[in-house]
């Protein structure tokens, strides 16, 4: 009942934030850029936090299992080497992971990463859940992430349903074995140029003869 009441109260805000972006990469692109990390299975919660007010601005999940993906509900980051299907980005290499953090970290925002170890079976279960989630409406990031986590039997009692990225981060930070790190950057607040630079193709070096 409480969740229904919150949704009803916030519905006008969600509608004002526009609808979800329905992006669906091809099978060929997903297969081409698929990335398998040599690290053990893990789950990382990313929370974007204001450097001025400490308010939470965004929530996302990176899942590392048989491949590494980022569930970025209602997010604005994109890269041609990280094909997207309904807010799930595939091909999250170390470069793409760093790109994702760099895009969100700037003078007005920092990124908190909170990582926990999980089993391969748990990674499979959570990946399947976020892949069938569908694209997310604006302002619904923490709601979508907390709902996905609560659907996991091994997290249901630990994670609250919430629209607040900070409340979600606080609960996640209490999980056993969590490793937290805050990422800061002094890039200007208008970071549109960051995305353009990230997506530039490497320049070919032409060596001149002697």
TrEMBL record:
Name of this chain's protein: Lipoprotein
Keywords associated with the record: Signal
Source organism superkingdom: Bacteria
Endpoints of the signal sequence: 1-20
Species this chain originates from: Thioclava indica
